[in-house]
Known about the structure:
Strand content: 5-15%
Helix content: 25-40%
Number of strands: 9
Radius of gyration: 19 Å
Order of helices and strands: HEHEHEHEHHEHEHHEEEHHH
Number of helices: 12
Strand order of the largest sheet: 6-5-4-3-2-1-7-8-9
Largest sheet: 9 strands, mixed
Amino acid sequence: MAERAAGGLSKWLTLARNVALANLGRLRRPYRLTFVVNYLCNCRCAMCNIWRRPGRPEMALDEIRRFFAKASGVSWLTISGGEIFLREDIEDVFRSAAADCRDLFLVTIPTTGILTDRIVRGARILLESNIQRLIVTLSLDGPEDAHDELRRTPGCFRQVMETYRRLKEIRDGRLRVFFGYTLMKANSGQLFACIESVRTHLPHVAADDFHVNLGHTSGHYYSNLGMDLKPDGRALAVLDEFMRRRKHPLFDPVRWLERSYQRQAGRFIRTGRTPVPCAALTSSLFIDPYWNVYPCNSFDRVLGNLRATDYDLDAIWRADSSARARQEVAQGRCPHCWTPCEAYQSILADLLKRRARSPGLAR
């Protein structure tokens, strides 16, 4: 126990140092990765076309192990898909992340929440592997009928309820479980009905158990360019009421970050522009299942392929292609987004700068 605590403190200090340094400029290497391990999905969502992608060979386990062994400095790893629990070897991916990625402190996992047994087993494996913090987010986009219709998956809502209940039975303070509500035109007015629908199954659930983010389009990730997902005017009032219902974050960094994200979300809805300077390619980047590296999940610019660099991320981080894209992001010549995958580290990298910048100015 003492050894785990000491290791956790060291990894926490590495993450804290990187966050501090990110306020001063580009890091020597990214501390946060969005690591997409597959494009298979067990939902047929109306707002996302990942499930329509033609099947092709995706990253192999031995490649993942080689990559993690070289991924020094990565403190925060989002393992995403598709639905990651459709990978038969996902438990081995988890074990490799925990064992080989030596600075790893926080793992975040978004999931459709349908494959209950696999999800619960995967969470237990990560915790047994001494991951210091684990956040599992179960997608939920409306009351029962609306959610199942948006996901085009009958029975999906009730399976998410069962998965949440089973995960909450894991009595480990390192694990946090949330519902992930994507606010978009189709469901802008249904958030509170969704919360009440959940409470018919899980009476103790409240607004604090929900993460709320905004619907986005992306060519290289969601394959949904052309869809009209932008939340309508109702979303501004919904966000205000949602924040009112949530507890004040106090000393909870997760709640504080969530509240900061949601406070700026209305500004993004009104302007369509990223509300704070973006940390893509200064603190973070995106890796797809074929080892292509992108600045983020919105900017459709391939910076390089990790197979060509023997899985050495530093080589792409320092490449001219990354330098050019980094400059475009800094100048606002990018798609502009406000997704948690990019916004959270951008908020953290803005802590020292925000006082010097007028709160009324957009980037």
